[in-house]
Amino acid sequence: MDGGVLAACFDAGVPDTVIRDIAASRPQWAVFRDSAFASDAAKINVTEIFKSLSPGTRVQVL
């Protein structure tokens, strides 16, 4: 949205492939729904994917 400033995904489940695609677009912000992840480890994995592919992105899980 708005030239790559914000990427948001509020689906019930978010596969790693979608997370990687979002990270590859290098948005300034990425926002996800908390219940989309089965565990705390899955949420941590999201931040690790972004650290690797788009370290400048601020990730928020709501």
Description:
The chain is 37% helix and 19% strand. It is α/β, with parallel strands linked by helices and 62 residues long. It has one domain (6-61). Strands 1-2-3 form a three-stranded parallel beta sheet, covered by helices on one side. Helix 1 (16-24) links the parallel strand 1 and strand 2. Helix 1 (16-24) runs parallel beside helix 2 (40-53). The protein starts with 5 loop residues before the first strand and ends with a strand. 21% of the residues are buried. The mean pLDDT is 93.
In a few lines, what is going on in this structure?
With 62 residues, the protein is α/β, with parallel strands linked by helices. Helix content is 37%, strand content 19%.
Radius of gyration using CA atoms only = 10 Å
Query: How many domain modules?
Result: 1
How far apart lie the N and C ends? 18 Å
Quote the beta fraction: 15-25%
Count of distinct strands: 3
Q: What is the average of the pLDDT values?
A: 93
Q: What topology, given as strand order, has the largest sheet?
A: 1-2-3
Helix content: 25-40%
Number of H- or I-type helical stretches? 2
Structural class: alpha/beta
How are helices and strands ordered from N to C? EHEHE
Note poorly predicted spans: none
The description of the largest β-sheet is:
3 strands, parallel
User: What coarse outline follows from CA principal-axis ratios?
Assistant: globular
